[in-house]
Amino acid sequence: MSFLELKGLSKHYGDTMAVGACDLSVSKGEFVSLLGPSGCGKTTTLQMVAGFVQPTSGRILLDGADITTVKPNQRGLGIVFQSYALFPHMTVADNVAFGLEMRRVASGERRKRVASTLELVHLGPMADRYPRELSGGQRQRVALARALAIQPPVLLLDEPMGALDAKLREEMQIELRALQHRVGVTTIMVTHDQAEAMTLSDRVVLMNKGCIEQVGRPVDMYERPNGRFSSTFLGKANVFEATRARPGTHVDVESYRLPSSDAESVGALEYIVRPEKVEFTSEANGLVKGRVGARVFLGNHWLFQVETPLGTMQLTQANTSSPQVAEGDLVSLSWAPENARLVPRAKAAP
User: Fold this and answer.
1) CA–CA distance, 87 with 84 (Å, rounded to integer)
2) Are 224 and 272 in contact (CB under 8 A)?
3) What residue ranges do the domains of the chain occupy?
4) From CA 180, how far away is CA 172, in angstroms rounded?
5) pTM
6) Rounded to an integer, what distance in angstroms lies between the CA atom of residue 137 and that of residue 146?
7) Is residue 125 pLDDT above 70, yes or no?
8) DSSP category for residue 348
9) Could you tell me which of 271, 192, 65, 179 has the C-alpha nearest to residue 205?
10) Residue 142 and residue 86 in contact, taking contact as beta carbons nearer than 8 Å
11) Would you state the pLDDT for residue 169?
12) Are 77 and 99 in contact (CB under 8 A)?
């Protein structure tokens, strides 16, 4: 059952559309990420939910109540900004207590909630420290504790890992997911980091140019993208324009007939194959031939770029030993029909 609903939510600045008629339902306890490139409307959407931006049209429902015009401080939502917005002159405990003081929570209850929330984020021993005495990850946990202390119905996270280095960001993603599971709070996070969205989310909302492109579980979004944008933003993909006049087991890509387990899709199509689904094979079993243009070592895997008559194809191999293929080699490539995704080709913008 929907706990938070966005119904036809839009925001226009004059003739410029920031967000266009978005519909989204979020269940209680769900972790949903708004993912997309800069300027796609994800932050504006979050700010409308928070109450900082007034929608041009549409409604926001929280547990059945319309909060579209309710002031931000009366919505009771927990918010964590990328900058964390901690008060430098206040201790950790005082920062966490701030929202409770604003809500006139009695001092005894306030102390109890601050202590329990700091224990929840593993910062109990640091209650008397100041933000300047903490690491980036610790400051982030203080910001989370302050948002959670008010026991919000919804937690809003605006690029919460943006200020952290890559290694710490990975560690904090695991911590945040575990914390959200323990607390069970409904969470909406804005991010442009695809790995972060897939690591943390129950569902991903992929946005582009103010509109929702696709919504789904991370594994479904990755394995079954609905178009060129989804396939290339959520990971790497080989995407080719294809056509098929009638149902069948193959589609036409350039002068090639390539296999697909989707026997029904017809018309102007996109033929999508993930790099890890492509493999080097013998000439007799190859679907397409090419020459290795680049070979890049990425730690746990190798990335190859192969120049083919279809265009540049990407292929990845797990790093189990030294690769047998070098730059400049002539190779044959193949993939299983069930690993080729067919979707309708997007219409060109007018």
Assistant:
1) 9
2) no
3) 2-223, 236-320+329-344
4) 12
5) 0.90
6) 14
7) yes
8) P
9) 192
10) yes
11) 83
12) no
With residue 305 as reference, give the H or E element that holds it. Answer: strand 301-308
What values do phi and psi take at 273, rounded to 5? -135, 125
What distances in angstroms separate CA 180 from CA 154, 161, 185, 315, 345, one per listed residue? 11, 15, 6, 36, 38
In what helix (H) or strand (E) does residue 178 lie, and over which residues does it extend? helix 166-183
Q: Which residues pair with 15 in a beta bridge?
A: none
Distance CA 24, CA 168 (A): 31
Q: Provide the edge-to-edge strand list for the sheet that holds 16-27.
A: 16-27, 2-13, 57-62, 65-66
Kindly calculate the radius of gyration of the chain based on its CA atoms and give it in whole angstroms: 24
Tokens (6 digits) for 275: 């790099």
* Residue of 198, 204, 153, 154 whose CA lies nearest to 177: 198
- CATH architecture, range 2-223: 3-Layer(aba) Sandwich (3.40)
* Single-letter amino acid, residue 185: V
- pLDDT band per the 50, 70, 90 thresholds, residue 174: confident
Burial class of residue 311 in the structure, from the number of CB atoms within 10 Å of its CB (0-12 exposed, 13-18 middle, 19+ buried): middle
